[in-house]
Amino acid sequence: MYGSTRHEVRINRPAADVWALAGDPAKLHHWFPGIVDCTVDGTSRVIVTGSGIPMPEEILLCDSTQRRFQYRLTIPIFKHHRGTIDIIDLGDDTCLAVYSTEADPRAMALVIGGGSLGALKELKRQLETPTEEHN
Amino acid sequence: MGRKILFITTDQQRYDTLGCNGGTIARTPVIDTVASQGIRYERAHPQSVVCMPSRSTMLTGQHVSTHGVWMNGVPLPDDAPSVAEVLQQAGYRTAIVGKPHFEPFLDPFGRFAENGFASRGTFGPHRGFEHFESATHGAAGPLHYARWLTSTHPEAVGMFYPVLDSSLEVNAMGGGDTGAPQAWANQIPKEWYHTDWVADRTISWLDSLSVDDDWFCWMSFPDPHHPWDPPASEVGRIDWHDVPLPAGYIADAAEREAVLDAKPAHYRAWYDGRLVSNYEAPAAWVPATLTADQLREVTALNAVECELIDEAIGRVLAAISVRGWTDDVDIVFTTDHGELGGDFGLLFKGPYHVDGLMRLPFIWRPAPSAGVAPAVVTKPVGHLDLAPTFCAIAGLAAAPWMEGKALPVDDADADARHFERVLTEWDSELFGVGVHARTITRDGYVCTTYLPGTAHDGTEGELYDMADDPLQRVNRWADPAFAALRSDLVADLWDHQPPMKSPLPTVEAPV
């Protein structure tokens, strides 16, 4: 069965600044709590979760013009998965970061969605904290 | 040296599974004896009928709307109030052994603290518990029991019923002799099963204490929650063929369905397989397919699990006696919520505020040194009252954030301190299906009002007279003769129902 989640957070930083971190597929573990490592090779990415599980992914889209990043988990438990990160310029030097998850099995949409909410909060915390080192 | 507290919880245990509450299938002599020495509550209700919200109420002493764990999958914040922390600060040694479930269990990212201790080989501290040793319903997952079984008896890991199916839904697979959902012949030796493990680990922690320590130990058994997979060596204790059908089961299908049709629409919709409102019951199982023999077998397996718990408690009480503590130990026994157990043809749990899920086994045996007389309390109490009771036992005032009152010791005490009502909440929003209900139990009536949701427009409700209709078959919600009572109960409910925490905490996993 199919399920989806969508979370968003407004960040008081220009969209370009946020995209510089959120749009870099090799830096996901810098801001996604529970992902401890991240390796990119072309359109392949392997993340390692906090519980030690490696998860291979396919990068579907990394569009710096639209500021949209899309990927899918390719481990067999998923019949379908697509994650989408959008950084939307609000025109006042702030932006909206949106993290959407579609998954079958649907339970994984909730699990990843819960993680992505924590990730958005961490992204906001890092980017709105002047002294935070995130490069 | 003060009074010590042994807080015993089970998971999803019906009121009528204990001998002291009239149960006739499981033999529960240990708890029956504890009840005879203490106070047995006949109308104790949870503030939620699913695990995480209910357990969060036990720990915080707060209504669900206040602590904000409004459905399974919503984590209790790490800094939420905790009665264990209050007791620890007062000098108590504190532990939880067994099922905690204050945080989501499905946690591949390892984001939640209670899932991380076992992999690091640590045991807390967490939420005021200096010792945090965890287990759940089987050998899967990140908790201490699973790690212990995997490392010491790896051949047993695959013997449990697979709680989730390949789609990560609660499994509907049938087993046992009858093909009943979640019935299973588990070949694990009894001494490796989680019930005995919880008792063993509790005894081990108690043995680590100084005889002069004051302590609060929450011993939390994962059973008799489904899956019904007790050790196969023990299943022969109760022959399911001999088990009577529960009083709440209506054998005639037409009569059963007429009763369901008189309740709000989600009852019949789930029964027919047209609506799955919550994650906790198998999504692929249709209650209308439940046979009488399947129910007999489930009831028998459930009773075996209750017997194993009773015997495990007996071992812990014996260990306490060896330490010379018995006269100074308060024992509180309850469960997080009940089990539908065949009532109206339904199993498992969901948004159904009827006695199968709401009427709790609930016993407090004060320390014999306190000199409290045995009693039976008929007035309504709830999980909300546990945390203030633990404070009172320790000689502490209830913390200001606690919303209940120390439990009454008899009905006169309950009257004097205005134990008049108990509230229960349900909220769920899962993959586009929402159910929202609020319930008040007062003056011998159970009254539930539904808020707008997938199956309800906000006008539906349930009203049962517990004296004339103990099996809750006749819904008086729309009966003109009960209109004034209904209005009064609903008004009283909203007068006492705290507002939901805002902003609404997010669901971060299915369970």
What does this structure look like?
Chain A is α+β, with helices and mostly antiparallel strands and 135 residues long. Chain A has a single domain (3-128), classed as START domain (Alpha-D-Glucose-1,6-Bisphosphate, Chain A, domain 4, 2-Layer Sandwich), CATH 3.30.530.20. Chain A has three helices and seven strands, in the order βααββββββα. The radius of gyration of chain A is 14 Å and the shape is globular. Chain A starts with a strand and ends in a 7-residue tail after the last helix. The model of chain A has no long low-confidence stretch (mean pLDDT 94). The two termini of chain B are 40 Å apart. In chain B, a hairpin with a 4-residue loop joins β6 (174-175) and β7. In chain B, α7 runs parallel beside α11. Chain B has 15 helices and 16 strands. Chain B is 27% helix and 16% strand. Chain B has 511 residues and is of the alpha/beta class. Chains A and B meet through α3 of A and loops of B.
Name the beta content range of chain A.
Answer: 35-45%
Strand percent estimate of chain B: 15-25%
Number of strands of chain A: 7
State the CATH architecture of chain A: 2-Layer Sandwich
CA-based shape of chain B: globular
The separation of the N and C termini of chain A measures: 39 Å
Number of strands of chain B: 16
Class based on secondary structure composition and strand pairing of chain A: alpha+beta
Q: Given the C-alpha coordinates, what overall shape of chain A results?
A: globular
CATH superfamily of chain B: Alkaline Phosphatase, subunit A
Most extensive interface, residues per chain? A-B, 25 and 25 residues
